[in-house]
């Protein structure tokens, strides 16, 4: 059916290991960033019993069983939040380039801003709480102490990337993003949708609204917790 297969075993582990040993290995070593996953699809399989297998030749994630580890920087960034941004950008197979203009909404303490500066992009960090001083001092970083959702697209102007990790109710994020989409002033987006409450009363409709935006996708990243990520990128 194809070449790249990963085992997702829940029973018959010894038999599954024997089968897996006959298939090409997909490396699970930590990756540097920037990094693009291979373009070929990744398939997954599992044994149901001694003689029955279930398999999918094309999984929704380009990473084995949806998991990806990166070579972490344990000194530069003020938090580990940058890992979910790296994962989202790897899935998009593109990222901010040197000189591109980015808005980082909900930036404090500065994990995503640090990642943008590391790529050589220009980052406008917006939050009501300050950035870590070492992040604020990085080349290309500017800081605006403000509620990001109070910013109108025309206040900011044309952007290459809009990134948002604000802790808010999903409808508030959707309404703000709608304004940006209508403005046409930005073509690349990565936004965290913070899921509020438990399974019984969580807002599932707003993520569905995000998923219906043409060209975009909503995923639960390996590095997400009680949240989803919406990504949209136009060429």
Annotated CATH topology of the largest domain: Rossmann fold
CATH architecture field of the largest domain: 3-Layer(aba) Sandwich
Number of domains: 2
- Look at the structure and name the CATH superfamily of the largest domain: Vaccinia Virus protein VP39
Roughly what fraction of the amino acids lie in strands?
Answer: 15-25%
Helix/strand structural class? alpha/beta
Per CATH, the class of the largest domain reads: Alpha Beta
DSSP helix fraction: 10-25%
Topology overview:
Layout: E1 5-7, H1 13-21, E2 43-47, E3 53-56, H2 82-92, E4 101-105, H3 111-118, E5 122-127, H4 133-136, E6 141-145, H5 153-156, E7 161-164, H6 170-183, E8 188-194, H7 205-211, E9 216-219, E10 227-233
Parallel strand pairs: 1-2, 4-5, 4-7, 5-6, 7-8
Antiparallel strand pairs: 2-3, 8-10, 9-10
Describe this structure in words.
The model has no long low-confidence stretch (mean pLDDT 95). The two termini are 31 Å apart. A 7-stranded mixed sheet has the order 6-5-4-7-8-10-9, sandwiched between helices. It has 2 domains: 5-66, no CATH class; 82-233, Rossmann fold (3-Layer(aba) Sandwich), CATH 3.40.50.150. By secondary structure, it is an alpha/beta fold. The longest helix has 14 residues, at 170-183. It has helices spanning 13-21, 82-92, 111-118, 133-136, 153-156, 170-183, 205-211, and strands at 5-7, 43-47, 53-56, 101-105, 122-127, 141-145, 161-164, 188-194, 216-219, 227-233. The radius of gyration is 20 Å and the shape is globular. The chain contains 7 helices and 10 strands.
């Amino acid at each position: 059916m194809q070449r790249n297969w990963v085992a997702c075993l829940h029973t018959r582990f010894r038999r599954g290991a024997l089968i897996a040993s006959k298939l090409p290995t997909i490396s699970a070593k930590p990756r540097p960033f920037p990094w693009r996953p291979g373009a070929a699809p990744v398939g997954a399989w599992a044994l149901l019993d001694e003689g029955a297998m279930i398999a999918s030749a094309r999984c929704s994630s380009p990473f084995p069983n949806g998991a990806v580890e990166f070579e972490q920087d344990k000194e530069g960034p003020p938090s580990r939040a940058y890992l979910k941004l790296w994962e989202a950008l790897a899935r998009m197979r593109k990222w901010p380039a040197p000189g591109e203009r980015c808005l980082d909404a909900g930036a404090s303490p500065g994990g995503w801003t640090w990642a943008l500066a590391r790529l050589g992009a220009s980052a406008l960090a917006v939050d009501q709480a300050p950035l870590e001083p070492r992040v604020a001092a990085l080349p290309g970083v500017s800081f605006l102490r403000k509620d990001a959702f109070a910013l109108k697209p025309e206040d900011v102007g044309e952007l290459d990337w809009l990134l948002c990790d604000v802790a808010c109710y999903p409808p508030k994020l959707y309404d703000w993003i709608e304004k940006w989409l209508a403005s046409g002033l930005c073509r690349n987006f990565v936004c965290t949708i913070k899921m509020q409450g438990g399974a019984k009363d969580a807002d599932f409709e707003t993520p569905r609204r995000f998923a219906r935006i043409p060209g975009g996708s909503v995923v639960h990243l390996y590095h997400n917790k009680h949240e989803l990520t919406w990504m949209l990128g136009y060429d």
